[in-house]
Amino acid sequence: MITRRNLLIGSVGAVGAFVMPAYAHDKKQFKIDPKFEPQSVRYFSYPPGTIVVDTKNHFLYLVQSFGRARRYGIGVGKAGLSLKGEAVIKRKAEWPSWRPTANMIRRNPGKYRKYANGVPGGPNNPLGSRALYLYRNGRDTMYRIHGTTEPSSIGRSVSNGCVRMINTHVEDLYERVPLGTRVVVL
């Protein structure tokens, strides 16, 4: 016999199982490990509305209610290049332009010097389709939560410090969070 409780539990499970396919804007579907697809999970550590970036495990959590969060797979910075602590989203951009930081150019001039004047927004831009700009004490940290043209980097520590997401996933997050959202990077 189907009880109201079993119906509710089944409905929650069905909603949590909904996933969005990952695309790299070249119309080729890229298969990522299913654990990195967006999904609803149990999560109790921070209040609703907080974004928690778990760099060690390559997950970003958007806490939605007490005990629940929307989890996304991410790519993060190489050892020593990631932001740690708290920040706030003070700016959001669709198809953002990008310019490597002075530190990026200094670390790898052969790769980044040619982009010193910037790259306009669009499908070939390293920031992907959306960017959430992280600020601390009113100042830009130069770290972003953004899309990527390299979906194979999800689940890895390969970036210059920013948090990378599949473009369709960062678009979903972008629509869910307002300016002023608290971000905790573990």
Automatic annotation (TrEMBL):
Keywords: Cell shape, Cell wall biogenesis/degradation, Glycosyltransferase, Hydrolase, Peptidoglycan synthesis, Plasmid, Transferase
Limits of the L,D-TPase catalytic domain: 49-186
Active site: H146, C162
Pathway the protein acts in: Cell wall biogenesis; peptidoglycan biosynthesis
Family: Belongs to the YkuD family.
Identification of the protein by name: L,D-TPase catalytic domain-containing protein
